[in-house]
User: Which sequence fits this backbone?
């Protein structure tokens, strides 16, 4: 993907845009478990990133009048959680799900190659670790990317619980502390409105006091898990943070 001009051609406009956005180049693209794909973006030193945050990748030049006039601005950004960031090397690593269909995000993930320029917004988001007696993670494959970064950041003495749903066991990402999580197999069933993940969370043997829950993935499923924690386990709503990443038929979540 090439959305940038040369530094000379960009001039003052380019310098202003560089204050707002981050530009890097793809260094590595390789398969990850399941329908995931690792994408390493280099040349981005000095990012202020907290594990759990995401970036918005530009599928098109959002500063171009053509993008707005064509009506494609709604398809110009796609949000991806950051798997890891190495400040020393300036490499940001994404792990992107290859969703079925031909949405802008899916097309980009399938076609991006080493050497391609990538423009993205600076890391953002409040879906990050909170001080709590323990941490609870619940979600499916798309949530695993965020969970990986957060689990890596959790202190070794911080208790961790969780349920992660995958289509098949081999589809699970190499999450830190994965032996402390419950892995549930979905098979050919849909991840949308998943009763499998909800049942797995119900079966978790959690401490009597609430911790802090991070629930991410398909929109209807995360709402069901939050309802369970609040209504059935008596957790305060403020102790359950949900992050809907996708849902069938929702434009902009592909």
Assistant:
């Amino acid at each position: 993907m090439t959305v940038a001009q040369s530094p000379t051609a960009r001039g003052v406009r380019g310098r202003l845009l560089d204050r707002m956005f981050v530009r890097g180049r793809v260094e590595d693209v390789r398969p990850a478990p399941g329908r995931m794909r690792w994408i390493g973006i280099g040349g981005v030193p000095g990012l202020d990133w907290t594990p759990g945050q995401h970036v918005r990748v530009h599928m098109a030049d959002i500063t171009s009048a053509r993008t707005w006039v064509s009506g494609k601005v709604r398809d110009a950004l796609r949000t991806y959680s950051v798997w890891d960031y190495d400040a020393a090397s300036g490499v940001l690593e994404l792990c992107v799900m290859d969703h079925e269909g031909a949405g802008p995000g899916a097309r980009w993930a399938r076609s991006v190659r080493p050497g391609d320029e990538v423009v993205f917004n600076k890391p953002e988001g409040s879906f990050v670790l909170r001080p709590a007696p323990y941490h609870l993670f619940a979600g499916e494959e798309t949530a695993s990317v965020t969970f990986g970064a957060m689990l890596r950041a959790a202190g070794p003495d911080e208790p961790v619980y969780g349920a992660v749903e995958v289509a098949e066991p081999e589809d699970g990402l190499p999450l830190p502390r994965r032996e402390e999580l419950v892995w549930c197999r979905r098979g050919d069933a849909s991840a949308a409105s998943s009763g499998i993940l909800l049942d797995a969370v119900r079966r978790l043997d959690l401490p009597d006091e609430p911790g802090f829950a991070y629930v991410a993935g398909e929109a209807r499923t995360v709402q069901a898990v939050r309802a369970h924690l609040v209504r059935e386990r008596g957790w305060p709503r403020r102790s359950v943070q949900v992050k809907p990443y996708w849902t069938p038929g929702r434009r902009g979540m592909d």
About this structure: Residues 1-9 have pLDDT under 50 and may be disordered. Residues 83 and 249 are 26 Å apart (CA to CA). The radius of gyration is 19 Å. The first helix runs from residue 7 to 20.
